[in-house]
Amino acid sequence: MLTTDQARDRAADIVARARTAGADAADAVFAADAALEVSVRLGKLEDVGRSESAELGLRVFVGRRSASVSTSDLTPDSMQTLVERAVAMAREAPEDEWAGLAPAERLLHGAPPLLDLADHDDPAPERLRDLALAAEEAARAVPGVTNSEGGGASGSRSVWALATSTGFAGSYAATGYGLSASVLAGDAAAGMQRDYAHHGARHLRHLDAPDAIGREAGERAVARLNPGRLASGAMPVVFDPRVGSSLLGHLLGAIGGSSITRRTSFLLDALGTRILPHGLSVRDDPHRPHGLRSRPFDGEGLPVSPTAIVEDGVLETWLLDSASARQLGLEPTGHASRGIGGGPGVTTSNTYLDGGKLPVETLIGDIADGVYVTELIGQGVNGVTGDYSRGAAGFRIVGGAIAGPVAEFTIAGNLKDMYANLTAANDLKFRYGTNVPTLRVDGMTVASG
Q1: 121-158 pLDDT, tens digit each
Q2: Which tens digit of pLDDT belongs to each residue from 152-184?
């Protein structure tokens, strides 16, 4: 795989070629990745897979017209053909008054922050196999587990580079490791249930122990056996952190630049107003050391920094790339994302909800009749109106305590009301790209299937 310097030079070279070929401005992305995945099942090796890829994407501007092209053929002849095709396409494209590169004066200059995203460990397939076997073995050892869908371990190394004709050229490397187990409990006569556990980390040494991952998978599957049905009605719904992060995802999607410029967001008029209760905040931290979504600059070459998206319940900012910022008469926020093809979108980095004060036991302690959700099913969320309806599974809450498993029910509400009636516990942990503590939403409608 290329070094970060070589990747940066590749991107800068094709930008220079595009300018020579007649483009008024250009930017380019280079991405390379090598991944190794090992899967096991019932104590035996099932599959070993290795993949490698390298791609380059080029975006060019001729006046207010633009075009994007990409290729995995990185030979010199292919590069020249790519440039010529892109410039020719841009000349025929419709004009877009908002398109363009990020403001040159806003670009990141100087050394990027050191985020420790790349591990120096390079595990052999045998080591990944042993981790996967250990995780599956621990899951199968849980009493009540009767079958296995397998265990898996993976490792990847990637390099990403961006260059623009306005003077930015940067790159960084990252590694990622994952370990998982998925098992079944029960039997065909009485009914079977499956569940899983997974952990991912930038550094191999930061992965949870395989026996802990396996034990969690097994215990989760067994706990779901013999589910009952819920009575329909309005009741408090408590979201396990593993699924509660989706509530934050809907919020972030609603404040992205394209949703605001197109006027397709249920939070369209919410900037500067209270959307969460007092004390709760949503933060984005791209500088978190070895964070799963940390990055030294955004997809347009702008510097990134920790941001309070919601502060003490009040929505403080939209998430804007340069194009949406121009359309709104605002400044880009450093949240641009970039793939190989097309122009920038927006994304967050390590996002989390904090400010929860209550222990989980207190959060649910006054719920006479409610539900604790551990799985969400379907995509029944309307980003324009905020209407929310999803299938779910989990556990009853009776008399302030977790009771037996329940399945085949629907939870419904409106996201504005759900956010306004949100209560957060104090058990926030940083395990994913988006992290939340246990969350409680009062007054949701539950319907049994």
Answers
A1: 889 999 999 999 999 999 999 999 999 999 999 999 99
A2: 999 999 999 999 999 999 999 999 999 999 999
Q: Are 217 and 349 in contact (CB under 8 A)?
A: no
In tens, the pLDDT along 425-440 reads: 999 999 999 999 999 9
Provide the pLDDT for residue 189.
Answer: 80
Residue 61: which residues within 8 A CB-CB, separation 6 or more?
Answer: 23, 24, 25, 26, 90, 99, 100, 101
Phi, psi (5° rounding) for residue 216?
Answer: -65, -45
Residue 415 vs residues 58, 245, 263, 320, 388: alpha-carbon distances, Å: 38, 14, 17, 22, 6
Residue 41 one-letter amino acid: R
**Closest Cα partner for 320 from 106, 67, 159?**
106
Instruction: Report pLDDT for 190.
Output: 74
Domain locations along the chain: 4-222, 227-449
* Fold classified for 4-222: PmbA/TldD fold (3.30.2290)
Q: What is the mean pLDDT of residues 308-318?
A: 98
Q: Say whether pLDDT at 120 is over 80.
A: yes
List pLDDT tens digits, range 70-89: 999 999 999 999 999 999 99
Quickly tell me which residue has 């397709």 as its tokens: 264
In this prediction, what percent of the chain has a pLDDT beyond 70? 100
Phi, psi of 352 (to 5 degrees): -155, 155
Main-chain phi, psi angles of 357, to 5 degrees: -115, -20
CA–CA separation, 341 and 380 (whole Å): 29
